[in-house]
Amino acid sequence: MNFKNKVVWITGASSGIGKSLAITLSKENCKLILSSRRKEALMAVKALCNTPENVVVLPLDLAETDSLAGITEIAISCFGKIDLLINNGGISQRSPIIDTTIAVDRKLMEVDYLGTVALSKALLPHFVANKSGHYVVVSSLMGKFSSPFRSAYCGAKHALHGFFDALRLEHDKDNIKVTMICPGFVNTDVARNALTADGSKQTHQDEMTEKGLNVEVFTKKMLQAIKKEKFEAYIGKKERFGIYLKRISPRLLHKLVLRSKVR
Ligand SMILES: NC(=O)c1ccc[n+]([C@@H]2O[C@H](COP(=O)([O-])OP(=O)(O)OC[C@H]3O[C@@H](n4cnc5c(N)ncnc54)[C@H](OP(=O)(O)O)[C@@H]3O)[C@@H](O)[C@H]2O)c1
Fold it and tell me: Which of 70, 193, 197, 222 has the fewest CB neighbours in a 10 Å radius?
């Protein structure tokens, strides 16, 4: 698989991983549709792309699931087809369970899980009709094992694996691919934008996120995984070994996470 002449729709394209994906893919002769809530920030990313004339800005809010079918129709009409949907838009969370309002749990599920599911379902008939399509879902290592103070985030990201593993099975016959990307720490604004117990943003950076992979390095590895049509890719530093440790000894992983600096 290569990206040449493919139409790629990226959510969460206004910053961090999505922004880096857009700029990198624009050098591979793709046509891009960039989505997130902030139109001005998306326009700024478009201006940084190699061929801005091949880039369309299409704002959306993943929490407004009822709007996503109509927006998908517009997205398909931009270039007449869509080859890949990169479900990257999302928010994180930093707060103890005991203090976290249910509104925060609901918000994380609405944006990270239901928004992604609604958008992917809206696009599914197009992929089925074309007998081709590739869903890329930016989950997290927190979609495979958990860490304290991210309960709502872990719940929403774990749920994505349940849904998309079923989609991959149901639509294997339609030549539809699913790649789950599980980043470890990547140095973006994800921690600053994370919701705290009352729903307000954390606003400051985490030490571990700061020390995480450079976003361009991460993007390169992510695009390799997509090209290889991997089912799942774990991309990070040593934290990614938590995936393998959970398979061998969940109790040992529990002890190591308790001892780690991840807060
Ligand atoms: N960085 C990490 O360490 C890390 C680790 C694991 C997983 N991830 C995942 O990677 C993805 C990208 O995060 P990032 O690290 O690049 O963080 P980021 O810089 O905070 O980017 C998040 C993106 O999601 C968009 N977004 C947030 N809420 C939205 C909504 N309601 N509707 C539509 N778009 C929305 C934001 O755009 P607007 O504000 O313009 O809407 C922004 O473009 C997320 O799914 C995150 O969970 C990141």
Answer: 70
Helix or strand holding residue 3 (H, E): none
Please state, for a pLDDT cut of 90, what percent of the chain lies above it: 98
Exposed e or buried b for every residue in 171-180, given b needs 16+ CB within 10 A?
Answer: beeeebbbbb
With 80 as the cut, is the pLDDT of residue 98 above it? Answer: yes
Contact call for residues 110 and 136 (beta carbons, < 8 A): no
Domain borders along the chain are: 7-259
What is the biggest distance separating any 2 CA atoms in the chain, rounded to whole angstroms?
53
Out of 10, 24, 34, 36, give the residue to mutate to test ligand 1, the one with the largest number of ligand atoms within 8 Å of its CB.
36
Residues 6+ apart with CB under 8 A from 128: 171, 174, 176
Those residues with Cβ within 8 angstroms of residue 207's Cβ, 6 or more apart along the chain or in another chain: 261
240 pocket-lining for ligand 1 (C-beta < 6 Å): no
3-state DSSP assignment of residue 202: coil
Kindly report the pTM of this predicted structure: 0.98
Residue 4 exposed, middle or buried by CB count within 10 Å (0-12, 13-18, 19+):
exposed
Kindly indicate the confidence band of residue 60, based on its pLDDT and cuts at 50, 70 and 90: very high
Instruction: Confirm or reject CATH 3.90.190.20 for domain 7-259, answering yes or no.
Output: no
